[in-house]
Amino acid sequence: MLALKSLILIAFLAYEASCLANLEEVFAWKELSFAWPNEETKNAAIKNGEYVPAHNLPLGLDRWKNKLFVTVPRWKSGVAASLGYVSLDEPINKTASVIPYPNWEANTLPKGDAKLEGDNHIVSVFRVAVDSCDRLWVLDTGLADILGDPKVLGSPAILIYDLNTDQLLKRYNLKHEDLKQDSFFANIIIDVDKNKCEEAFAYIPDLGGYGIVVYSLKDDDSWRFKHNYFHFDPLHGDFNVGGVNFQWTDGVFGLALGTPDQQGFRTVFFHPLASLNEFSVNSAVLRNKTLTSDPHIYYEFKLEGFKGDKSQTSASVFDQKSNTLFLTQLNKDGIACWNPKKALEPENVALFVSDKEKLIFTNDIKIDSDRNLWILSDKMPQFIYHELDGNQVNYRILKVKVDDAIAGTTCVG
C-alpha cells in the first residue's frame, strides 16, 4: 500500500511539473518600468515623487492583437501611469517597459488642487476588458494613493476606447444611486454580440458594497442589483499567500460569461473573493432594469456548488469551445478549471497548475482570441502588508494554450 501511494505521488508531481512546463513566462519584472519620453523626464518624475518604482504593481491584463494591456492601480503614490500596454511583437523583451495608454497625458494626475479636465483622463484602474468589437473598456475608480493619503479625484467611471484608432468613444460616470458608502469597483466584464456592438452591457461587481452594477451602452444608463450571494463568507476570509497571513471581507468579485443561448443570453458565473462557493444568474435578469426592485428575482440566482477547501478565487474566465471555467486559486498559488456540465464538487475542480514562486497571488486571468490563457501574478499581499524585494522577480505574466491546460483533467468532456 505504501509503494502504491508513493507511485501515485510521483505520478501527480510529474503531471504537475509537465503542466507547469507548458506555462510560458512571457514577462517577468523585479520592478515595473515605463516607456518615458526621455531619461530627463523619468529622472525628474523620480526626484519629485511622481514616479516611485517600488510602488508600481501590475494587477490586471487583457490582450488585443499585438498589445497586452496592463493596469497599475494607484495603491500608493508615485504610480507613473495606471493604464498601459506592452508589445507582443517579436522578439519579446521579458522586462519590457509599459507604454501608457492611450498616452502619457491621459495618465497624468493634476498637480496641487488642480482639477481633472475633459473626459480622456485616467486616475486608477484595476482591470480592463477587450470586447469582440475591438474596444477597450476601462473602469476608473477615481481613487489615488489608496493605501497612503487617499484622494478622490473623480467619480467611478467607464471609459470605452476604439482600439483601431486609440480614440475615446465614451465616458460614463456611474450614478449616485449605483454607489454605496463602502463601494469599491475592481472588475468589469463585457457582454456583447460582435454583430450588435451598440447593444453591449457591462457588469461591474462591487466588492465593498456587495452589489453588481449593470451599464447599457445603447440606453446609456446603469442600475444596481443586490443579493445575499454577493456578500463574503465570514468563515472563509482568512488567507495565507506567499508567507503573508491576512483577512479580507471582499464580496462579489470575479464574473465570467458562459456560452450564449438561442436568445443571446448567457449564464453569468460569479463568486465573492472571500468564499469557497460559485454562483450564477442568467444575463436576461441583469439586463432588465425593472427587475432590480422585484423581490422574486432572488430565486433566479443559483448556487452552482462548492469549489473545495482553500479555493478562494479572484478572477475567472470562461472558454466557450471547451466549455471550461478557469478560476484563480489564491491560497493554492495556482489556477483551477471546472466544466459546468459536471456538478460543482471538489473532485470536479482540477488544479492544473500550481507554483509557490511563479504563481504567488494569481491576480488576473484572461483568454484571448487565439485561446491562450494569460495569467498575471504579482505578490500583492507582500506589496500591501510588507514590501517587495527589488532584487527578486515580483511580477510575472505567463500564458498557456487552453487545450494544453485542461488536457488530462476532469475539465475535458
Please tell me about this protein's structure.
With 413 residues, the chain is mainly beta. The protein has a single domain, classed as TolB, C-terminal domain (Neuraminidase, 6 Propeller). The protein has six helices and 28 strands. The strands form eight sheets. The chain has a four-stranded antiparallel β-sheet with strand order 1-28-27-26. A four-stranded antiparallel β-sheet has the order 2-3-4-5. It starts with a helix and ends in a 7-residue tail after the last helix.
Q: Identify the CATH homologous superfamily.
A: TolB, C-terminal domain
Strand content: 25-35%
Which structural class do the helices and strands define? mainly beta
Please list the strands of the largest sheet in the order they lie side by side: 1-28-27-26
Overall geometry: globular
Poorly predicted spans: 4-18
CATH fold name: Neuraminidase
- Quick one: CATH class? Mainly Beta
Computed CA radius of gyration, to the nearest angstrom:
21 Å
Count of helical stretches: 6
Main sheet attributes: strand count, strand direction, barrel closure? 4 strands, antiparallel
Rounded to the nearest angstrom, the distance between the terminal CA atoms is 32 Å
Query: In the residues, how many domains can be counted?
Result: 1
Total strand segments: 28
Output mean pLDDT: 94
Q: Any idea what the CATH architecture is?
A: 6 Propeller
Helix content: 10-25%
